Amino acid sequence: xxxxxxxxxxxxxxxxxxxxxxxxxxxxxxxxxxxxxxxxxxxxxxxxxxxxxxxxxxxxxxxxxxxxxxxxxxxxxxxxxxxxxxxxxxxxxxxxxxxxxxxxxxxxxxxxxxxxxxxxxxxxxxxxxxxxxxxxxxxxxxxxxxxxxxxxxxxxxxxxxxxxxxxxxxxxxxxxxxxxxxxxxxxxxxxxxxxxxxxxxxxxxxxxxxxxxxxxxxxxxxxxxxxxxxxxxxxxxxxxxxxxxxxxxxxxxxxxxxxxxxxxxxxxxxxxxxxxxxxxxxxxxxxxxxxxxxxxxxxxxxxxxxxxxxxxxxxxxxxxxxxxxxxxxxxxxxxxxxxxxxxxxxxxx
Length: 349
Ligand code: FA5
Known about the structure:
The structure is a single chain. This protein has eleven helices and ten strands. The chain is an alpha+beta fold. It folds into two domains: 2-99; 117-347, BirA Bifunctional Protein, domain 2 (2-Layer Sandwich). A hairpin with a 3-residue loop joins strand 3 and strand 4 (174-176). Helix 5 packs across helix 8. Bound molecules: adenosine-5'-[phenylalaninyl-phosphate] (FA5). The site of adenosine-5'-[phenylalaninyl-phosphate] has 25 residues, from strand 6, strand 9, strand 10 and helix 10. Residues 164, 179, 181, 205, 207, 213-214, 217, 219, 221, 259, 262, 290, 292-295, 316-320, 322-323, 334 line the site of adenosine-5'-[phenylalaninyl-phosphate].
């Protein structure tokens, strides 16, 4: 009897020792679960099996061994929980260590961007033209021969076609617009007078490229049609525009010129911003900077869109936006605007 009891006790003591030793070396939550199943698991736990077999023991042993086994069970469960808590604490500490942040390090500085000088110029132009009553219009860059040339009084055999080298999509029919002037026709076709329109957009010319000539560039077009409109209105608007853009003390000069869709026509210049008219490299020692073309809308153009030229008159003017941006922000090569060269763009920040 005594030997039997001792056997059971010994078995339980050995189990306690083995289980405790294994628990001490179980270093992951998976290993702990494995350990729990091995000793305390409902299905295959060693201790569970012993507890299940208690019933087979004679009464007095059952009580004694039962008490020892239950104590062992409670001890193992407690040891498991303690081990689990210790592991968790260690894992958390390790995770914290892994993800350690030095909050005293200086932050990463993101460079601040700014609006492209061309976009800025476009915004400023709109800001100047809007208060004078000009409404902003947008239109197609792919045009027909009719809008880019014919409706602007430039028939197929007209020598003025040579003034603008054209990128043709379907030769003689569809092209990339060479100027924003075709928008004059679109706007007038859509509206009855009075008209005050401003157009800003890309134009394309098959040109030899140099520091002041691009093949893709931007133009601005202004158009005003009303019953009483004279060249001095044109002059007034262009002068206001030039002074708002380049300073109140700017002088504006008109020179007779020729455009097929305006009559009379004039090109206009401003006095050089750099030398104030004295003559320098930028103005090629003329004292003047070329700005754009203008004139009174030709009666044939008005008739073409169904306006009666005996009642309505108007003026139009157009200029290159890159050239304006170059004057405002500096830069001596027009090609830099589309080069995406950050060194150039940063300089203009
Ligand atoms: C015209 O394109 C006319 N449509 C302007 C006009 C409008 C006249 C309304 C009358 C009434 P011109 O070809 O001169 O005109 O071009 C106008 C402006 O575009 C020039 O003054 C210049 O500033 C700019 N420009 C012309 N060609 C280039 C180019 N290759 N690269 C950059 N800017 C250019």
